[in-house]
Write a structure and sequence with these properties.
Number of helices: 3
Strand content: 25-35%
Strand order of the largest sheet: 1-2-3-8
Oligomer: single chain
Mean pLDDT: 80
Low-confidence stretches: 164-191
Helix content: 10-25%
Largest sheet: 4 strands, mixed
Distance between the termini: 32 Å
Shape: elongated
Number of strands: 12
Structural class: alpha+beta
Radius of gyration: 20 Å
Amino acid sequence: VVTEGNTMVKEMMALSWEDRDLFDLNWCHSGGYWKRYVSGGRKVKVHEQLHRVVLSRMLGRALVKGEWVDHINERPWDCRRSNLRLATQSQNQANTANLRRNNTSGFRGVLWDKRRSKWRAEIRIDGRCRHLGYFDIAQEASDCYNRVAEETWPGFYHIPAGIVQSGSGAGTPAMRVCNTPAPSSSIGGVL
């Protein structure tokens, strides 16, 4: 165990000082997350996840169905209080830089439409797919997606590293095609 200020780190597990008692419990690392099995009664084992335990302590209540824990820095082993926040599933999924395995465009929310021979931008918000438009250039489709995502999930969505938006260079017009506003029904914001 290494102590750095108010943070304790153990085998890629980071906790705030207030939660140091959790280090002594029997956690196992699985799928990037720390979890442990507890008795659910009548020989039933139920697993609890460390990040959910910590956020429940922060809120002073148990988390309910539909409440997700978002790791702000995207590191599931980092369960410091300053790195956890309450989120919806949609907000939690917005806070990732990872592209899907089958992504061929190199951009989030951008796919090639063979029938139209154009790039299509789309975004999934609360389980519903929303079409944003067709574009000649994949970067323009990505700019459109990024703008709508930032407006829909402020504070949660960030442009993945390595992606440069058009309009960031000198003399390049920003978002020439996308006029799609963010939906008014979006949840957005930190809960």
